Description:
alpha/beta; MenaQ_synth_MenD; EC 2.2.1.9; magnesium; Thiamin_PyroP_enz_TPP-bd_dom
Amino acid sequence: MNPATALATVLVDELLRCGMTDAVLAPGSRSAPLALALHEAAVAGRARLHVRIDERSASFLALGLAKRSGRPVAVVCTSGTAAANFHPAVIEAHQAGVPLVVLTADRPPELRDTGSNQTIDQIKLYGTAARWSCEIGVPENRPGMVAYWRSVVSRAWGLAQAPDPGPVHLNVAFREPLIPDGDESWCEPLDGDATGAWTKVRAATPGSVLHVPATRRGVLVVGDGAVNVKRYVAAASMAGWPVLSEPSGNARYGDHALSAYHFLLGVPEFVERHRPEVVVTLGKPGLSRPLLSLLRRAEEHIVLSPNLARWPDPVRSATQVAQDVEIPVLSGGDDGWLRSWRAADRAAAAAVDAVLDASPEVSEPRLARDLAAALPAGSLLFSAASMPIRDLEQVMRPRRGIRVMTNRGASGIDGLVSTAVGAALAHSGRSYALLGDLAFLHDRNGLVLGPEERRPDLAIVVVNNRGGGIFSLLPQAALDGPFERVFGTPHQVDLEHVAAAHGLPYRRLESAEELPKAITGSGLRIVEARTDRDANAVLHAAMRKAAHKAVRDLL
Length: 555
């Protein structure tokens, strides 16, 4: 099956599974895959297809259908000015709150801005008149595409409806061939969820709560920016579920919180025996690839999101999205599920600790582990969004009394000193920051404070491996020739001189045992921990090997 036919087949099928009963088509060439898929659905009796010879009439027909029925109606056109002719109806739908799913076929990127026929800029063509716009991208014959396509369509369907109904725009680029080629094969099943939409958006009504299926084989995942954490951690604990919390999820406390799940989920034998029936996600997870793989394997993945216009679903596995959920408690019975997770977590964490404690030298993961453990109650820990937060995720042991923050919205390296200073000024207790050297140098101006400005009580711990440490753990490290210059990006900046230039106290951490003493003090101050990027890569490999062995020994 060619990619254009596969994409159109899936998009139309997902719209039907979401509940579409009517679609309107204005004929054209580039939209042929969608036209054929809609025609097939109409012949099969799955939907009513309405065809009009011009786009303006087609779009207003769709508007009338949707306005009267209260259900989203899909309207399809080819590329170029055809799409522009939808604009008046899209504006009316926006102003009147009428749900429309606008599908504009488009030329692929290589034909744009070349003078190619019927090719204009269609990305976000309708501006603020669309509740949501998405450039789906040219389809490719590779695994993962079906989940992406269905997730996008079900999200669009949900966003077109209550509580704020209106038009959504999906721009769909097709490469030729545009008609079926007679080959029905594809690299993965094209099927969706037989029970309905790929992701079901549960619109909130007063007092409405999504009741999670009752099961002991559940997991609570807490990512960055989670809200109402204590409530859901308590519910998961009562249900006998393990809690897998990223550091900035601030749910890594209590008996049910695991700290070595990154390593557990890297052992295929463990994963096979611990496939959850339900996963409930709070916040935005994304630090651990093994954890994201767990979300794909869950039979039911429920995303809890305060905002039904936007929710995190990085692996396109969400089956339901809701603003409020209730996790049921099963009385009596076996707690073997939780005990098995906790036993493996203890074994993996102990194995990792043994590797970290084998040397008195300062290492990046040990620094992260020991810093999180050493902070006084009531402290704020701000972490860089690249390697430091990942180190914390892998080695930070459960504890109460600290708040962890990081800029994981876009996970950028910029502005971290200034963000840490701002957070410290707003925090009522002691504050600390764990930054890499490049992140620190990127925002040196954040250290410049005027004579009448408030000074934060903030110790900035800088991991100085003289470059971009995270790249030594990525495939780029195998590129011996260009690696050091274009990825490692070494520098020769003396951080003690940087501190002196800004009149700040400076201390260099000489050994791991010195950490508690090094971070004492008050005001804005710098603590430097020098490490080696190559040695850090070797240490991470040793941690992983030891943890995986410890888990396998339990199985």
